[in-house]
Amino acid sequence: MVNKFSKYSLQDKILLILGFVLLGVFALLILVPLLYIIFASFTNPTYLQNHGLTLDSSKLTLDAYQRVFEDSSIWIGFKNAIVYSVVFTALSVLVTLLAAYPMSLKDFRGRKFFNTVFLITMFFNGGLIPTYLLIKNMGLIDSMWSIILPGCFSVWNMIIARTYYESIPHELCEAAELDGANDLQYFFRILLPICKPIVFILVLWQFVGMWNSYYSAMIYINDPAKQPLQLVLRGILIQNQPQPGMIADIASTAQRSQMAELLKYATIIISSIPLLVMYPFFQKYFQKGITIGSVKG
Amino acid sequence: MIPKGRMMSTWTYVKKHWQLYVLFLLPALLLVIIFNYVPMGGVVIAFENYNPIKGISGSEWVGLKYFARFMSSPDFFQYLFNTLKLSVYGLLWGFPVPILLALLLNRINSKGLQKKMQLILYLPNFISVIVLCGMVFIFLSVNGPVNKALGTSINFMTMPSAFRTIYIASGIWQGAGWASILYTGALTNASPELKEAAVIDGANLLQQIRYVEWPAIKDMAAIQFILSAGNLMSIGFEKAYALQTDLNLNASEIIATYVYKKGLLDGDYSFSTAVGLFNTIVNFILVLLVNQIVKKMNDGKGL
After folding, report:
1. Mutation to test the A interface, candidates B126, B153, B183, B290, most A Cβ within 10 Å
2. Which helix (H) or strand (E) holds B49?
């Protein structure tokens, strides 16, 4: 559909080249910092602070990675993040997909009422303290359910799933009903298998969302053994407090602070590996996902 | 089968489709009631001198005392404007970038190159807030790469005047590529015939964009703008809090971070709840306003 470059007029060519340069600069602005972090994580910390990056192999080191790997905190963070994200994603997607089904049926009795009940929560909420007091009274502080349950049902995702169901021809449901299938059988045997794209997208969104968030964990999880990865990262990257075990053996204060810097690079890389590995697999669902997501509810 | 035209009584319907209520809807309903509606009831502590030992019903009623305290405090306008400036500037700067990216991506002739470009542009979206902010601290630190490149030693993270720029620029860095997917999707729906006709008629690049591509993405742009405008007050806590330092608070303290500090760090439950409720109300007014404007522009149809 796009015409060949040679067909543009001179003025358009200049405009287009300017545009592409802009696009290229934007892409470089994304790539260069990421590559910088990767290279810096292997560089001798003293050299890095005084001179910057180098290709001289005598100035390269795996020290930071060794220190991060040998400390248990990152592993505990990984383990917790995996457990929380998997449980959250499974529950959240199931509850959301289930609730969206009756809401997609035109003749569902009470549809309007339930719709209002759900929509109100998009505009009003109790806010931080009332929610915190509730969680505390339920005895969920330091329990993984404190981060999983409150955000488990998403009205927004329910609307997206509902919109998707509504695009499935209704005859399918009528045919199944004639065959004697009840709602549950129809839903799991017929509807869900055709709705794989939306299931996949919700899984992707919820998983990435939980994996990357730190807010609820910061509020509800105090026990270091239960902290998810992002909270461990926050200590190292934002609060400048590497786990004591990672730098305890370094005597000089100056060197210790240089190593603390280097640890930041290494933890960024290590913590990003899982998403980077999965990234190519998600890719083909990106376009589809966002197009479905944009369907207005 | 039920003959057409005869409606089942509600009771028969519910009995026949009990699964819809008990198995499908109930879990979501319970979650919403417990974790959304119960805390909504909990906001009464904003009007009380809440004492955790006495509980909600036993605490003394003080009416609007905490709202008055917040609104008469010298910090009130600062936090309100910090919140609004951050989100309004963020919207104005951030909104056009994805559209521009999508238009340019759409002009790349080679499908392979286009795919590679998209892969790069979408990548930052998957980086967590903590890692993003960690990178910001690394790059902008006094002896970090940015200062090295400029030959200076400026401590950007302690400058209130730099905070909004850092926040908004890093937001565009992270989100603009991902947001452009929406427009890329809409552009693929632009009619190829219209485009060909425009080219044959000798339309130049800007005219093609104006008459062929812009109409294809116009609606999407409007929806996106409205959605963001309705979210102006609910700007994210996570990033603002992570980028805060003691010295840039003048610009970086927004209502959400203030609510957190007052409530959970200082234990001032009632006051914090009042501030949060104030935020919710302002946000709701904004949503109503935006919806009114949309109705006016959209021939009486709201969202």
Report:
1. B126
2. strand B48-49
B6: alpha, beta or left, given left = phi > 0 and alpha = psi -120 to 50?
Answer: beta
Give the chain A residue nearest B188 (alpha carbons).
A1
Query: Amino acid letter at A163?
Result: T
Q: Which of A129, A141, A261, A276 to mutate to test the interface with B (most CBs of B within 10 A)?
A: A129
Collect all residues of chain B within an 8 Å Cβ-Cβ radius of residue A290: 178, 181-182, 185
Q: What residues of A are in contact with residue B228 (Cβ under 8 Å)? A: none
Whole-number pLDDT of residue B298: 65
Q: H/E element holding A94?
A: helix A72-104
Report yes or no: A13 and A225 within 8 Å, Cβ to Cβ: no
> What are the residue ranges spanned by the domains of chain B?
74-297
Contacts of B260 in chain A (CB under 8 A): 128, 219
Look-up: residue for tokens 């417990």?
A: B34
| Cβ atoms of residues B107 and A16 within 8 Å | yes
> Where do the structural domains in chain A lie, given as residue ranges?
64-297
Four-CA torsion A147, B34, B66, B89, nearest 10 degrees: 50
Among B26, B47, B262, B65, smallest CA distance to A132 is for B262
Burial class (CB in 10 A: 0-12, 13-18, 19+), B92: exposed
State both tokens at B229: 């405008």
Question: Mean pLDDT over residues B119-140, rounded?
Answer: 94
Would you call B220 and A184 a contact, using CB atoms and an 8 Å cutoff?
no
Give CA–CA dist A249/A247, Å, rounded.
6
Centroid of chain to Cα B279: 14
Residues of B in contact with A112 (CB under 8 A): none
* Residue bearing the bigger pLDDT, B260 or A51: B260
Could you tell me which chain B residue has the CA closest to the CA of A178?
A: B1
pTM of the model: 0.90
Chain B residues in contact with A123 (beta carbon < 8 A): 280, 283-284, 287
- Asked if A290 lies within 8 A of B181 by C-beta distance, the reply is yes
- List, in order, residues 6 or more apart from A142 with CB less than 8 Å away: A220, A221, A222, A223, A226
pLDDT above 90 for B136: yes
- The reply to whether residue B35 touches residue A214, judged by beta carbons under 8 angstroms, is no
What's domain A64-297's superfamily in CATH? MetI-like (1.10.3720.10)
DSSP label of B7? P
Percent pLDDT > 70 in chain B is 96
DSSP code, position B141: S
Q: How far apart are CA A182 and CA A176, in angstroms?
A: 8
CA of A248, closest CA in chain B: separation in Å?
22
* Residue of A7, A134, A237 with shortest CB distance to B137: A237
Q: Which fold has domain B74-297?
A: MetI-like fold (1.10.3720)
Q: Which residues pair with A60 in a beta bridge?
A: A43
Structure tokens, B39? 């805390």
